[in-house]
Design a protein that fits this description.
330 residues; 2 domains; Spore Coat Polysaccharide Biosynthesis Protein SpsA, Chain A; single chain
Length: 330
C-alpha cells in the first residue's frame, strides 16, 4: 500500500497498558483506506510485542534508536507519512468507528480547510466516561489565538500543509497547540460537533505537570508575539496566558485594554485573520471581562475606545453592564 488516503499516526513509549485497545479502534474504522504508522520511541515494556501480534498489513512499525521524545517522534511520523491526510491517535486513546469517515467526508466537503477536529469524551484509566469536551462556535481560527480548541487525538490535517508550516516545534507539552495555531494563522480550520474519540485521563499518560505546561504555553505565546511584532513584555505574555488558563485576577483592566488594542492593531495589519471577526471576538471577550472585573465602572468600560464596536453589542449586554455598574456604586 503506497498511497493511502489517511496516515493514522501513533507514537508509542511504554504504552502497553492501553495500546491494544487503541490499535483495535483503528482496525474497526468504517473507512478503510488508511495506514497505521506506529513509531516505537524506545519503549522498554511490552509495547513492541503487542504491536507485532497484529498481522494487519496496513500497520507499519518504525523504531527510534532510543527515546527521542514526542516532538521528534511526531515530526518523524509526518516525514514518513504516505497519506494525503494525517490523523493522530495517542496510544492510550480510542477512536470511535466512524471517526475517520466523518472527518474525511468533512474535509472533502470543505476543501479549503487545512484541518478539522472533533470532540472527545474524557474517560478514566478504567474506561469510565467522565465528561465531554465542549462545542465551539464562531470563527475557529481566531479562537485559536486564545485557546487550543483542538482535541489532538480527534484532529485530521492535510499532510502537506503540516509539512509546509514546519511541523512540530519544541514547545512540549503544548506542541500540538503551537502547531494548530500556526496552521490557523495561514489556513482555514474547523471543528465538528461529533464525539470522535475517547480521550483517556490517567496518571501515567503524557500530560505534564501544570508548571511545565504553563511554561510551554508562555513560550509559544512569545513566538506568537514575535510573528506579529507584539510587545512581548511579562505583562502582555501573562495577560495572554491568563486567557488560555481562564483566570484574569492578577491583571488590571487598563493593562488588559492596552494589550487588546495592541494585539488587534498588529494582527489586523498582518491580514492573516478576518478583521470583523477579530473585532467581534475581542469585544465579546472584553464584555465578559468587565462583567467580572469592572466594578462601578462597568458601564463606562463597556464603551472603551479601541475595543467597543456598535455592530457587535446587544441591548442585553448593555443593560447588564448598566445594572452591574449601578449595583457596584450603591
Amino acid at each position: 500500500m503506497n498511497s493511502p488516503a489517511i496516515t493514522v499516526f501513533m507514537a508509542v513509549y511504554n504504552g502497553s497498558k492501553f495500546l491494544s485497545e487503541a490499535i483495535e479502534s483503528i482496525l474497526n474504522q468504517t473507512f478503510t483506506d488508511w495506514e497505521l504508522l506506529i513509531i516505537n520511541d524506545g519503549s522498554t515494556d511490552h509495547s513492541v510485542k503487542i504491536i507485532s501480534e497484529f498481522t494487519e498489513p496496513r500497520i507499519r512499525l518504525l523504531h527510534n534508536t532510543e527515546n527521542m521524545g514526542l516532538v521528534y517522534t511526531r515530526n518523524k511520523g509526518i516525514k514518513e507519512a504516505r497519506g494525503k491526510y494525517f490523523a493522530i491517535l495517542d496510544c492510550d486513546d480510542i477512536a470511535f468507528p466512524q471517526r475517520l469517515e466523518i472527518e474525511l467526508n468533512y474535509m472533502k466537503t470543505h476543501p479549503e480547510l487545512a484541518l478539522c477536529s472533533g470532540r472527545a469524551v474524557f474517560i478514566d484509566s478504567n474506561g469510565n466516561a467522565l465528561h465531554e469536551s465542549e462545542k465551539y462556535w464562531g470563527n475557529k481560527n481566531i479562537r485559536m489565538i486564545f485557546n487550543n480548541i483542538l482535541i489532538n487525538s480527534a484532529t485530521i490535517f492535510k499532510t502537506e500543509i503540516v509539512r509546509s508550516v514546519g511541523a512540530y516545534h519544541e514547545h512540549a507539552p503544548a506542541e500540538d497547540y503551537d502547531l494548530g495555531l500556526r496552521i490557523a494563522e495561514k489556513y482555514p480550520i474547523a471543528t465538528v460537533d461529533d464525539v470522535l474519540v475517547k480521550y483517556r485521563l490517567h496518571d501515567s499518560n503524557t500530560s505534564a505537570t501544570t508548571t511545565t505546561l504553563h511554561q510551554a504555553e508562555r513560550s509559544l505565546i512569545i513566538d506568537f508575539h514575535k510573528r506579529y511584532g507584539i510587545s512581548s513584555t511579562l505583562i502582555n505574555t501573562g495577560i495572554h496566558h491568563s486567557f488560555i488558563v481562564g483566570s484574569m485576577d492578577s491583571f488590571s483592566i487598563d493593562d488588559i485594554a492596552t494589550y487588546f488594542i495592541e494585539l488587534k492593531a498588529k494582527v489586523k495589519a498582518s491580514k492573516q485573520f478576518a478583521t470583523l471577526e477579530l473585532d467581534r471576538f475581542l469585544f465579546q471577550k472584553w464584555v465578559e471581562l468587565i462583567m467580572v472585573k469592572g466594578g462601578r465602572m462597568t458601564f463606562m468600560l463597556f464603551f472603551r475606545s479601541g475595543i467597543f464596536h456598535y455592530s457587535f453589542m446587544s441591548f442585553k449586554q448593555l443593560r447588564r453592564a448598566f445594572k452591574k455598574g449601578i449595583r457596584e456604586t450603591f
